[in-house]
Amino acid sequence: MSDTETAHVETIREWLTRYREDVRLVQAAMLSDAPSPRARYTLAGVLNYQLRKMDLAPDWTPEIGMVDDAMVLRTGAAVFKINNLLPLPSDVEQTIERLARDDEAVKAILGQEQHENLFQRVRGLVERRIHGRTPEEIVEDAAMRERFLGELDRFLEGYRPPAIGEPAAFMRSVRSYIGAKLE
Q1: What is the mean pLDDT of residues 13-32?
Q2: In the chain, count of helices (H) and strands (E)?
Q3: Please, which contacts does 162-166 make with residues 24 or more away whose CB atoms are closer than 8 Å?
Q4: For the chain, N or C: smaller number of CB within 10 Å?
């Protein structure tokens, strides 16, 4: 396995370890009044995706089920930056900047073409109804938002970073699952 592949595995391992914290930071950004509505809808779509069990790599798939969720958080931050033209509080700005920088690693892992497909899919989450709700409803409807946040809390309470087995096999699986779904 090359040094680059080893670095990719370590990057993904870090993302999975920080996953719960990263979701909470994106949630705080979505709940902030600072971002534009369209940008908040982007974050709501990204968070709504986290609760979807049939993702690009299904969450119940050993080792790789949460990798696409971690990638969507990062790519979602990059999309958010495009959609938000308003100044942000420094803590929100720092979170978004860090996750958006990580999107470059997503691109390195997936390759340019697959990353562009993921980017377009994430952009489309703003319009997507998942679990009977749209991102706009999550942001604009207080009762819907409270139910959603409750589901997200329960999901995160049960989250445990998955163990990553043999790195070469892990990377093949990641690219195979996610690449096949993005084509």
Answers
A1: 95
A2: 8, 0
A3: 162/16, 162/62, 162/63, 162/64, 162/65, 162/66, 163/63, 164/9, 164/12, 164/13, 164/16, 164/63, 165/63
A4: C
C-beta neighbour count of 149 within 10 angstroms: 15
Nearest to 84 by CA among 27, 40, 118, 29: 40
Mean pLDDT of 129-139: 94
Q: What is the CA angle 134-157-7, rounded to 5?
A: 90
Q: Are 11 and 35 in contact (CB under 8 A)?
A: no
Among 27-41, 81-95, 110-124, 138-152, the least confident range = 81-95
Residue showing tokens 């968070």: 47
First to last CA, the chain: 25
Exposure of 38 in the CB half-sphere (CA atoms within 13 A): 10
CA angle 1, 165, 77 (to 5 degrees): 85
- What are the structure tokens assigned to 132, written together? 């009977």
Model pTM score:
0.91
Enter the tokens of residue 23. Answer: 């979701």
